Amino acid sequence: VGAVRERVDAGDTGYAHPGGLPEAYAAFSDERYGWAPDPGRIAVVHDVMRAVEAMLLLFTEPGDGVVVNSPVYPPFFSTIRHAGRRVVEAPVQPTGSDGRYELDLEAVERAFAGDGATAYLLCNPHNPTGRVPDAAELGAVAEVADRHGATVISDEVHAPLTASGCRHVPFGSLDAPAARRSVSLVSASKGWNIPGLKCALVVAGPDAWPTVAALPDEVTEPSILGVAANEAAFRDGLSWLDDTLAYLDGNRRALADALAARVPAIRWHPPEATYLAWLDCRALGLGDDPSAAFLERGRVALVAGPDFGAPGAGFARLNFATSRSIVLEAVDRMAAVATGQA
Ligand SMILES: Cc1ncc(COP(=O)(O)O)c(C=O)c1O
After folding, report:
1. From the alpha carbon of 189, which atom of ligand 1 is closest?
2. Closest residue by Cα to residue 71 from 101, 50, 36
3. Residues 222-251 pLDDT 10s
4. Which residues line ligand 1 (CB under 6 A)?
5. How far is the CA of 49 from the centre of ligand 1 (A)?
6. Segment 177-198, tens digit of pLDDT
7. pTM for the whole thing?
8. What is the predicted pLDDT for the residue at 163?
9. Over the stretch 87-118, which tens digit does the pLDDT of each residue have?
């Protein structure tokens, strides 16, 4: 807030310059993920989804297939289609030993071999399941991408929100040709809740950088306030982020306890990153879109599972980045719907 206020007070609200943002991000990434990207290969852009579109236009041809791991953040579908490319779904599956979601590498392989995809829009960490793919899974992704000559576009906007005990692996940090050809999209917009200020970064591997560097500034220019806020967040916002992560961790546990006690028929795996809970409500008999019943009968708003692709039927996504009492109240309202008392 201080960094934004300073700009406004100075009347300095013109066009943006990257300033020290690439260096601030590289230092943050080094501190948090143990990998410092070269600031000379970081472009500062408008926001993550605009950057996804720009990367699709740069690295794929009209009509090309783009692999996504559904259920996935709904704008992935619309942005790929808007760019004139085809969505190729390789669903993630709850195959982990404890029911957590994992990348289905055979489905990814099929997507490239059978459906002729040329790019992989990876959601790392994954929205809505909150999964943080590990180095072995990402290494396998890189191996498949290399075999098919595909470009990996890794959306890492949720990475700062990785829970303690889990480790985010930047795709670009892998030792693989696919990583050197990859682009990763990052921003302070989720971790510090500033998406409206409009700023994100494209972290390009050495082989992707010449293409990214040729992107005209006008195409994805960030806002000067977004640049100031991102730089302040990545440079000075670490203890704020840690306090937020600790609070979210408490919410995650409170949500787990409340769901187990009040609506045990809902199945889910607590996320390893993000503040999102991907709830399997199929046992409640509320149809393909349980969020509609929760809203109409319980007056509690979740996001509709089917918006995340076909595997989202019968699911709903709950955002627990709020005060704990509201999380508990949300579960009370869902329980009332589930038990027919609402
Ligand atoms: C996976 C993912 N990517 C991108 C975004 C949006 O980022 P931006 O506002 O920078 O486009 C979100 C927002 O929820 C998201 O969850």
Report:
1. 10
2. 101
3. 999 999 999 999 999 999 999 999 999 999
4. 47-49, 73, 123, 127, 155, 157, 187, 189, 195, 200
5. 6
6. 999 999 999 999 999 999 999 9
7. 0.97
8. 96
9. 999 999 888 878 899 999 999 999 999 888 99
pLDDT of residue 82: 98
